[in-house]
Design goal:
alpha/beta, Rossmann fold, seven-stranded parallel β-sheet, 7 strands, binds NADP nicotinamide-adenine-dinucleotide phosphate
Length: 258
């Protein structure tokens, strides 16, 4: 039976993906560190939708976590036909003040773990000529964002990785999508130390991201911008100088004077 594996499923956008995919009848593997939260969510989804929901606690900051997840799925004979790389973190502020351990953690979770999971799960999808990957990137990945320098760089990585995989895997009918949300109301901003009152863009609900991602995935899109404003901002970059686009993204984020 096919399963959808969601990282970052304990809260926020990942939890919203879990709720929506369970509603659509998918069996799930939930991955994050907060085991209790995921067990509660799993019980709720099993009771409400009758789907099989597994919980696998993993700290994606550990380099071997992706292979442990893969081995668990293989040993349990869980056929992962949809991988949602949603786990991510950030830290607001100037790059020069970023604590070194945060620097490593942001790169490991946002880039390395996502890339490793793609590498581990993609071959079986290609062999089966079905399934795919949704990578949760960010509007911030379209250019450097002053005040979120490393975070925006990790999301650029995820966008370009997804774009190349979209073409490579597309030859075998496997879909790969990067979803690029703007600011979303999940508690993520608080956790990153980003004062939301400084943000000069609307903040949307997680459901907008999930619905747009699923629609985009079904329509074999390469990138998806969840709101019209996200799409307009992305398109308008074509007419702006690079320096202006970067300054503007810093202005919208409202963390430091750009
Ligand atoms: N919120 C926004 O404004 C926004 C905008 C654009 C893109 N995004 C992206 O959307 C994704 C989800 O964000 P969100 O808003 O839902 O954030 P969130 O509410 O903070 O959720 C982040 C998720 O990532 C998991 N995670 C973080 N570090 C982890 C680690 N070391 N190991 C395993 N799991 C880890 C967390 O689970 P545990 O803490 O339980 O491990 C949690 O489930 C992220 O990739 C983020 O970059 C968010």
């Amino acid at each position: 039976m096919p399963y959808t594996l969601i990282t970052g499923a304990s809260m926020g956008i990942g939890e919203t993906f879990a709720l929506e995919f369970a509603r659509r009848g998918h069996n799930l593997v939930l991955v994050a560190r907060s085991e209790e939260k995921m067990q509660l969510l799993a019980s709720e989804l099993r009771a409400k939708h009758g789907t099989d929901v597994r919980v696998f606690r993993a700290d994606l900051n550990d380099a071997d976590a992706p292979s442990r997840i893969f081995i668990y799925c293989r040993d349990q004979r869980l056929d992962i036909d949809l991988l949602v790389n949603c786990a991510g973190l950030s830290r607001a502020g100037e790059f020069r003040q970023l604590p070194p351990d945060k620097l490593d953690e942001i790169m490991t979770v946002n880039m390395m773990a996502a890339a490793r999971l793609c590498r581990l799960f993609l071959p079986a999808m290609i062999l089966a000529r079905s399934g795919g990957i949704i990578n949760v990137a960010s509007l911030g990945g379209l250019q450097g964002v002053p005040g979120l320098a490393l975070y925006s760089a990790t999301k650029s990585f995820l966008i370009t990785l997804s774009e190349a995989l979209h073409i490579e895997a597309g030859k075998s009918r496997v879909k790969v999508l990067a979803v690029c949300p703007g600011f979303i109301d999940t508690g993520f901003l608080d956790r990153t130390g980003h004062d939301a009152s400084g943000i000069r863009l609307p903040i949307y609900g997680a459901d907008k991201v999930v619905q747009a991602a699923i629609r985009g995935f079904e329509n074999k899109r390469i990138r998806v911008f969840p709101t019209l404003l996200d799409a307009v901002l992305s398109f308008s970059q074509r007419f702006a100088s690079r320096k202006f686009a970067v300054r503007l993204s810093g202005y919208f984020a409202g963390i430091i004077r750009a």
